[in-house]
Specification:
Layout (H helix, E strand, L loop, with lengths): L6 H9 L20 H10 L8 H9 L10 H7 L5 H6 L1 H16 L3
C-alpha cells in the first residue's frame, strides 16, 4: 500500500499552508531504508504553534492554559491532538469539533 502523499507533495502542501498530519504508526511515506527519509518527512508534517498567535492564545485560555507561560506549548498542543491553527481558521467542522475537547480539557478530563 502506498502513502496518500509523496514527499514532494507533502512539501508542496506544507508550502501552501495546508495542515498535513503525521501518519499513523507503521505508515511510511517513503520506501524502507535507513530511516533518514522518514525523519525528514516527519519534520515537514509538523505544524508550528506560535504562542503569540491570537487564536492559539484564545484556544489555550479556553482549555485553561496560559499560552504565554507554557514553555512547551507546541508539545502540549500536539499531545492533545488539537488541529493546526490554519485548519481552525478555515474549517468550520474542525471548529465545532474542537469545543467539546476544550470543555473536557478545562474540566480536567482531557
Amino acid at each position: 500500500m502506498s502513502a496518500p502523499w509523496s514527499p514532494p507533495q507533502l512539501r508542496i502542501l506544507a508550502a501552501l499552508g495546508h495542515a498535513v498530519y503525521r501518519p499513523l504508526a507503521g505508515w511510511t511515506s517513503a520506501p524502507a531504508g535507513d530511516g533518514a527519509a522518514d525523519r525528514s518527512d516527519a519534520a515537514t508534517l509538523d505544524f508550528a504553534i506560535d504562542p503569540s498567535d491570537t487564536l492559539v492564545v484564545a484556544i489555550s485560555r479556553a482549555a485553561g492554559l496560559d499560552a504565554r507561560a507554557c514553555p512547551d506549548l507546541s508539545d502540549w498542543w500536539h499531545a492533545h491532538g488539537l488541529p493546526a491553527p490554519v485548519t481552525l481558521r478555515t474549517d468550520a467542522t474542525a471548529k465545532r469539533a474542537l469545543w467539546p475537547r476544550l470543555r473536557a480539557l478545562r474540566a480536567g478530563r482531557g
